[in-house]
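Figure-free illustration: sequence to structure, shown twice.
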Amino acid sequence: MATASKSHQVSRRRRHSVHPLQRLLDYGHQYRKQIWLAIACSILNKFFDLAPPALIGVAVDVVVKQQDSIIAQWGVKDVFGQFLIISLLTVIIWILESVFEYAYARLWRNLAQNIQHNLRLDAYKHLQDLELAYFEERSTGGLMSILSDDINQLERFLDVGANDIIQVATTVVIIGGAFFVLAPSVAWMAMSPMPFILWGSFAFQKLLAPRYANIREKVGYLNGRLVNNLSGITTIKSFTAEDYENSRVAQDSNAYRQSNAKAIQLSAAFVPLIRMLILVGFTALLLYGGMAAAAGTMSVGTYSVLVFLIQRLLWPLTRLGETFDQYQRAMASTNRVMDLLDTPIAIHPGNMALPVETVRGEVEFKNVTFAYKDRLPVIKHLSLQIPAGQTIAIVGSTGSGKSTLVKLLLRLYEIKTGNITLDGIDLQDLNLRDLRRCIGLVSQDVFLFHGTVAENIAYGTFEASEEEIIMAAKVAEAHDFIMHLPQGYETIVGERGQKLSGGQRQRIAIARAVLKNPPILILDEATSAVDNETEAAIQRSLERITVNRTTIAIAHRLSTIRDANCIYVMEHGKLVESGTHDQLLQQDSVYASLWRVQSGLR
């Protein structure tokens, strides 16, 4: 394990040494053809966009030299004919510029949407496959900011920024080439600021990178706070903590604002500095080029072209700061998304198929020890056997490790030592999804999705018919209250089922398990948070659905498990007693003491 951990750390450092742009290109390798096509269209669009100044120079040459102009050398001496040729070339160039602008806009935007869509799906799918411990160590809001805000940031850059960078580079190459072809004597003066501009751009990029990484971190904290508060709005209201939470949100929002302010302070200086550098080249061209044209060593047409071209170079370079700003934000987001995708899946998926219909349901824990990360073991050398088709109960004080056993059986966590078997097969060898399909869980903390009652009952058994849904609800004694809801089975339950009472949510959860019809049923404190009448109804339904099914009942109320085939008592991660209800009372130990407390007999 230590070797594997060290290997993971080395591979993680290696990933971080790769530039985020390279990580993005590696991810989007299936789009390479579309990327190259989009780049080609961006370059061609910019080429035709820069052509009109050349036509202006040709037109000035016709006005000044007439029969001795460049076009006249092609054999067209008539001035009107020369202007017709210029006009025709203008129409063709403008049409081609528009065609390639449409093409690159469509290609880049579709590319951005496709990568955004696939990246979000891949990140979410990978997130679902990670172990439960990963989610316990991170805030929901932070993960949401990666799946939503970071991926959207990347989409915004691909939509506009990538094209801007390509077109700026194309502009520099074309205009630089034109300068050295048309007027090599002044070209070096006009282009002399270019190396400093490029060096300054990369220098700004390096300075901005850590600032934008900090921004992404701060927005993750802010999103985490907001998601957490919205989920706990009832608690906030009941404890009149609105002002306190306002101040905490303000604190996180201000930290985000301050991080942005530090980045803005630097990025805002980029354009003014670039303008000053461009001013040097423009002034040199204006002065020395003008003197050369006046002296006759440079034609007026060439001088006109150069003046127009230097202007066309000015504005794209002043936008370079904004483009690099988008780029750095996108790269910071890319690193966060790729880090998520590169997070190794700790739980082995298993490779042995487990058809549900073949499962008998015999479960055995053999010398199992388990500890949550950076904590002392909560399960210590525990061994217990659950015969197929029987109902066993596990009781004990809070923190004794009862619910942890359920998580280990579902392989939400991996055990440290020992092993757990199902029908004699080690859980680690079984296909993980097949294993979970044969287990039905009804927990104390019922989670209902925003949707209809019917959709929540059929969750996990999505192909169920309406008749099967209703039958499951009747077995769970939920049908009657469902029919009294405004739209019956089509009633929207609200987020987390907030429109229903705790007992109603519990019965829908039982109906969900009934419809799944698993060979193993786990009841984790299923009746601890309901009233006596609801508890009686749930107990009646449980008596029916536990027949000939392996049932594991984690219980706080001992009255609900007194008829179990065997009751295990846990304390501090160990089994301290086992037997039937009557046998445990006769032992007059931990269970008997708990029973006396709950029944009021002490």
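We now fold a second protein in the same way, so the two outputs can be compared directly.
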Amino acid sequence: MSDYGHPLRFGTFITPTAGDPERAVALAELTEAAGLDLATYQDHPYNPGFLDTWTLLTWVAARTSRISVSGNVLNLPLRGPAMIARQAASLDLLSNGRFELGLGAGAFWDGIAAMGGPRLTPGQSVDALSEALDIIRAVWDTDARGGVRLDGVHHAVSGMKRGPAPAHDISIDLGAYKPRMLRLTGAKADGWLPSLGYLDVADMPAANRVIDEAAREAGRDPRQVRRMLNLTGGALLPAGRGFLQGPAEQWVDDLLPLVLEHGFSTFVLAADDPRTIQGFGAEVAPALREAVEKERASAGTDTGPGRPAAALAARRPDIDYDAVPENLRDRAVEPGDRSYTRFRHGYMQNGRPGLVLRPENAEQVAEALGYALDQDVPLNVRSGGHGISGRSTNDGGVVVDLSRMNRVEVTDPAARRVRLGAGARWGEVATVLNRHGLAVSSGDYGGVGVGGIATTGGIGYLGRAHGLAIDHVTAMEVVTADGRVLRAAADENPDLFWAVRGAGANFGVLTSVEAVAAPVGDVVVAQFAYDATNAAAFLRTWGEITEAAPREVTAFLLTGPGRGDSGPVARATVVYAGDDTDAAVTALEPFLKAGPVLDQSAQLAPYPAILPHDDAPHRGAGVPASRSGLVTGISEDTARTLAGMLASGATYFMQLRQVGGAVNDVPADATAYAHRHQTQSVAALASPRTAARLDEHWAGLGDAIDGMYLSFDTRTGPEVLSLAFPEPTLSRLRRIKAEYDPHRVFDQNFPIEPAGG
């Protein structure tokens, strides 16, 4: 047998004693503090001396921030696969991808039967586990159509709805010793998790052969099965007394052959002694990693992830998959991977990238960028993937996905200072900041990524009261085309700081922002539905009402053409940025006069509640033809042109977002977003096949269009850039582009030509 090349991981196997529940939790916290990777607990539900393992795992996940948690192993007969699938996905989502599913076929059948569980023979228990694996995987597969159906001998589901999808590909690890269980492990599992007390070293080669043969028969690479081992009976002692009974250097000598000769790469220490756990993390783990790395380098061991034949066949010939940096390999996603559908599409664009890299810090972003530039394929960067123009994915190229960089921190509550990861979504940002009575104005949808809004503008429901999202930013961390990690602020790389706030996609990969949030608690949100049959008059009146509204009010209007015998209906969301309900009523009453009111409501709500938030994977709905423009007031001519566009059916979606107020308090040259005198942002969407008709009507707006908001337009070319960046803004951007990205590395998202290029 030989080394499978998996990265080493280390964890603990903690006794879930009910008599001292805090100790069971504290040892997991110590596991994290000691630098270990995994905390696990045995699962014997029939033992009243133990805490319920699932409840304990949930509690521990909430008390820790980095380590993974798992049952070692969960008792399938008393838990059932359908509920396990839902519970596992839920805990994985709540812990941000830190759950692993250790499963056992069952043992101690008297105790299981006493609790109402089935009494199975060994063969039946393996068959039941195999059926359970199929159900669990199917529940997590939210991209498949229809419900989950399996009419098994031991488990059956008939049309169970799929989901939720976990935050990451949950590893299913099986405790297995006998041939049938070993074959099931090779065919369907992600990990093999025996205990050293029940598995002799002499039996390891034969067990690995059974797993490997079963994996190959199932069309899998045997390296897809991680070999894990519970270490029992170990003690860190000053002098050696036997296997795993001695100082740290002896432990390394004892464990090294298990890695190099028997393929084990995850070692889980069964110990409740704090000193042993600390020593395992501080002395044994780093020394063993160093020894293994040295041996692997000498032997030329393949440390890439195992891939099934079908996945290898889906690889793109112009991407060097073997050269993916080691820090990025573990979470890289390729065609053929289970999680590929979760990362391939954008909100609008269907994508077929050859590789998705998922860095978790700026240094890894630099590594990902350097690797991607060595491949002769397109490069795209994704924060939230919500962009209308679909610039966050590609066909056949590399996508750098920032979703793991999603931390939201309030660094100084008194000064209202916050730090936001570029991969966080604004729904998460709003929720965390709201706990401190704070908010940063964003768009109108919680699923939009921080990186997208923080590099373009951020026209949101708090805009007129508190400005654009970029107006709150005080500093940024950016990875530039040459791999530098730079801090950009007013006093540090000031040109870059100016440029990224409005044209950021052209200058590097934004990894985080520092900002000063606004004091915002509850807001008053009103919803209106209007009969917009007389669209020109309605739009003209709407413009007058919004122009006269106090700056605490920001109003968004959405409308489209009528359907069938029904005329067009306009729907408005109007937010009063404060909790003074009397003042809000006074400010909102004029909106009842915009047109015939079909429905209305108003309520006091926390700011996060008004941002729809959907974390489901994007499915690529299809990139529309989208047009964007900024206007200063809605004149009669503008109202008639927009009404004609609606009546013609040239657009199926038209939105007016109110700007002005605090947005216009900022000087036009303060940021690369230079539009500081307009009062409305207008966007219209159409099917690509009717784009020409949309453009005819759009052209009728003429000189009323005074700039544009880049995120809402799918056009490209010099005329788009000149609208988005009026002079002298564009010339300054070209000069800065020549300094930071002269070779146009970042050319996928409304590219700016470098000066002299």
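Summary for the second example: The chain has a mean pLDDT of 95.
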